Amino acid sequence: MPKEGSFSEAAYLACYPDVAAAVAAGQFQSGEQHFELWGRREGRQPWPKTDRIHIDEPNDLSKVGGCQVFQGWTTSLNPEDRISVSLNGEKVKSVEIPRPDVERQFPHLNAKGWMFFFEPAENERDYVLSLRIADVTSDLRFTVSPDAVQLADIARKIRRKHLDFLKSALACAMCHASCPEPSMLIGSEWRCPRCGERYDCTSSINFIPKSYPNYDAIKFKGAIYSHGYDATAEDLIAEVTQRGGKVLDCGAGWRHSVRESVITTEILHYPSTDVVAVGEHLPFRDGAFDAVLSLHVLEHVRNPFVCAAELMRVLKPGGRFLAVIPYIAPVHGAPFHFFNPTPQGLLTLFENFSTEAEVSVPRSAHPLAALKELLNAYSGFFEERAWKLLANEKIGDFAARTTDDILKSSFAAGFRQDGMMHLSGNYMIAGKRR
What we know:
- There is one protein chain.
- By secondary structure, this protein is α/β, with parallel strands linked by helices.
- The protein has 3 domains: 52-144, Sandwich (Immunoglobulin-like); 153-364, 3-Layer(aba) Sandwich (Rossmann fold), CATH 3.40.50; 366-419, no CATH class.
- The protein is built from 14 helices and 15 strands.
- The strands form 4 sheets. Strands 13-12-11-14-15 form a 5-stranded parallel beta sheet. Strands 1-2-6-5 form a 4-stranded antiparallel beta sheet, with no helix packed on it. A 4-stranded antiparallel beta sheet has the order 4-3-7-8, with no helix packed on it.
- A hairpin with a 2-residue loop joins β3 and β4.
- It starts with 8 loop residues before the first helix and ends in a 21-residue tail after the last helix.
């Protein structure tokens, strides 16, 4: 704690960026000089608070569920500071995530985001969450409901049943040779005796081949991909469940609940993920599933044709598949975004493997819904004044403008350059052959 009357130059400049800019411009010799001349009368603190712990989610600790995301952000002076998280005295592994919004708010501080997933332990309802960074500690108490504990217990039982299924379904992602039981894989690195491919299963059933391009780039950066099943997917799952079969949800994201008949894969390990895998190399034996789902995934794989072939390989002959992929959508890396096919392109992906394949438009993807999503995405890349002008423009008037008129307008001038690679009409590449 600072002593009475003391002054911290580093803290003062870090917490008051306007003063830091004035010192850098030579208007003041130091932050302390500014404080003596102006800061004191402005009510600024000589040793302002730099260490902060903030929780964004959950915003109501009385409603913590059976599978809950905790996330927030911290600030401190020392770039080496890291948040420490514990629950009931047991250390919890949290993930550091980028928080550009906090970095913009505190440009001279060490600003970082953090998050972790919480699932109630068996028969345990009362928790003390302890968060600490530098010299700041925050202790929060919460109690989960009996229903939340019960849901978590059910999820654990279903995941154990999934492991039983995977004993016979799991295979090397490269050569499809059989592999040891999942319980024997977790906690170590496994090397396939047939092809020599290696897999890092130290913390989960991770069957992404270490030889996979950009393997090191596959890291959790805080984005949580979570969406529900629409009626078409629900009907397919219900049909397979009734027959006692299994559905593969490839690239499932985070499912808030797990289902006994649905096996999930994802490029990152969420609490609901059964197997960490990439779509081009699915770690399952041929014909292991009665149905396969690929919902908003194929745009994220380097080679969607290979991925489509893999989905068909692990699907039983006569099994049903359902694939959804965006056409009009901004770039959204997870962590990559490669292709958005036309209806003809989507048919081409599966034409060598399927019968009775038809392309349709889900209700949620209606052209007007797509327009709304694009406008929402565009709004994030406009300077505030330019967006307000555009928001007041009538759609008919805007559509009637010439392209040259639009590109000369204040709308275009107020669109940030970082948005160009997210939301452009087309992209151009030029280069030289090796």
